[in-house]
Specification:
Helices cover 40% and strands 31% of the residues. It is α/β, with parallel strands linked by helices and 232 residues long. The protein has two domains: 2-115, Nuclear Transport Factor 2, Chain: A; 118-231, 60s Ribosomal Protein L30, Chain: A (2-Layer Sandwich).
Length: 232
């Protein structure tokens, strides 16, 4: 199964995908359909230039054919997780699956390099008012709300919005404040549902700060108000 996993990473790392996990999931399903139907030429044809530069059509299709003969048809596939990673070489979505083939079970990872995507990272957002003073002393929910207000304004200034957020990180000095902070987080992200990490820290820069929040957003060039403004 290790050879299969390696093959899938090579195939999909070169695919041109939008910044949308649903589209990535649909592309995985399409890949499986083509592999099950032995459409190796079609898989190669839909791959990006960097894959075609890395291997020849004959070598690649022969490899896929060998994998297909060994594993057979896909019986079932369950997505276990997805993650977004940012690198100097680009932005990637990694989808992890537990898959059952006629020839056995496999753990798979499909890696997509996203193209035409702008990443906006808002870090170290503290509960500060316009005058620089701490908002909501002793009230973690009020401080969380202020942090998210600042994040929303920062995203808008960068040509994005809260609906583009894919990950948040919440730092708490008192872990018991998590339910109250989570409730405020849900007011902003209940329908968006970004990946969220919560951690307790020993302290923040200002001892009155109970919360800091970070957010990462991904915006397709065509969806960015700032991008549309440039096009005009």
């Amino acid at each position: 199964m290790r050879k299969l996993t390696a093959a899938l990473l090579v195939v999909l790392a070169g695919c041109s995908m939008s910044a949308d996990t649903k589209m990535a999931e649909e592309a995985v399903a399409r890949f499986r359909t083509m592999l099950d139907a032995a459409q190796f030429e079609a898989i190669y044809a839909e791959s990006a230039d960097d894959l075609r530069k890395a291997t020849t059509r004959d070598k690649f299709t022969a490899f896929l054919e060998a994998v297909h003969k060994k594993l057979g048809i896909t019986k079932s596939a369950k997505e276990e997780s997805w993650n977004v990673n940012y690198h100097t070489s680009g932005t990637f979505i990694t989808l992890s699956y537990a898959t059952s083939y006629e020839g056995g079970d496999a753990r798979e990872q499909f890696v997509y390099r996203l193209q035409g995507v702008n990443v906006v990272a808002v870090a170290g957002t503290a509960p500060l008012g316009p005058d620089g003073s701490t908002v909501g002393r002793g009230d973690a929910a009020a401080q969380a709300r202020r942090c998210l207000e600042i994040i929303a304004a920062a995203l808008e200034a960068a040509g994005a919005s809260m609906r583009h957020v894919v990950r948040t990180r919440i730092l708490l000095t008192r872990i018991e404040d998590w339910p109250a902070v989570a409730s405020v987080h849900g007011e902003y992200f209940r329908t968006i549902r970004p990946v969220c990490t919560v951690a307790q820290v020993a302290g923040l820069i200002d001892p009155d700060w109970l919360v800091e929040i970070e957010a990462d957003a991904m915006v397709d060039d065509g969806a960015s108000p700032r991008a549309r403004e440039r096009e005009r």
